[in-house]
Prior knowledge:
By secondary structure, the protein is of the alpha+beta class. It folds into two domains: 9-126 and 275-288, Probable inorganic polyphosphate/atp-NAD kinase, domain 1 (Rossmann fold); 133-267, Probable inorganic polyphosphate/atp-NAD kinase, domain 2 (Tumour Suppressor Smad4, Sandwich), CATH 2.60.200. Helix content is 19%, strand content 38%. The chain is built from six helices and 17 strands. The protein has a six-stranded antiparallel sheet, with helices on one face. The longest helix is centred in the N-terminal third of the chain and has 16 residues, at 19-34. The radius of gyration is 21 Å and the shape is globular.
Amino acid sequence: MSSSSPLKKFGIWGNTDKEKFWDLLGPILDWSKKNFLEAFITTRINDNHHKKFSHEPKIIESAEDFNKLDFLIALGGDGTILSAARAVGSRQIPIIGIHLGELGFLAEVTIDEMFSRLDQIAKGDFSTQPRMTLKATLSKNGTNKIFHALNDFVIDRGKSQRIINLELYAGNNFISAYKSDGLIISTPTGSTAYSLSAGGPILMPKLSAIAVTPLSPHTLSLRPIVLPDDQVVEIRSLEQGEIAFAVDGQVSEHFNRDTKVIIEKSSYSINMINFPDSNYFHTLNLKMGWGKRGGV
């Protein structure tokens, strides 16, 4: 499957705290000039770079500038991909992740293969895979706060050492009460992140479903559950004080028993770039040790 129209412009999003990012920025800009592509960088990158490049990029000065891009290169780890996804939002800009850290599951492309993969993109030899996102609405006193997550929403006890009491509903149907450290509500993409560490199921990214994984539940009978994507999930706190709410591990909020928390499928997905030889199971095996036995 190939891109149907020629690519002209792309953006660069990256973890500017990593020295490797700065080592690669110049060569990527040179590559863009060689392939007659117009490069854009974020204001954060522009404010922190102190080198002169042979090919000076344009600047992404506002969220609307993302609409100019044909694709976005995210250089870093999975956290970089997640922040890029929030920036892109509903604009459907395809994202390619270049892995710079120790473990990158979303950022599948390594530095060694980066330019061969970018050449494939320039030729249109790629496809895009839509990744489901979740929407959370926190309502209190007539005020709504809305969040979107590519990986997960996590409700936990925060700084407290106590077990918290939560109730989970799907529509008007009561699912269960949880005495635990919290709950993870994840997408299929997020199923291999925190949810997996907590004993949750692995869901292929192509699926459209919602996984609910309890954190250290105070009973053996409370297991993870997978719900269809048309379910509207409500979490009710039975606690007197505030508990923590995190979005993709990067945005934090708090809520209490007077707050209505609704989680549902978002109206948009995030497009991740795939290649003809992409293999999800190979990635599971390589990066997660899927199917390997100890000592083998």
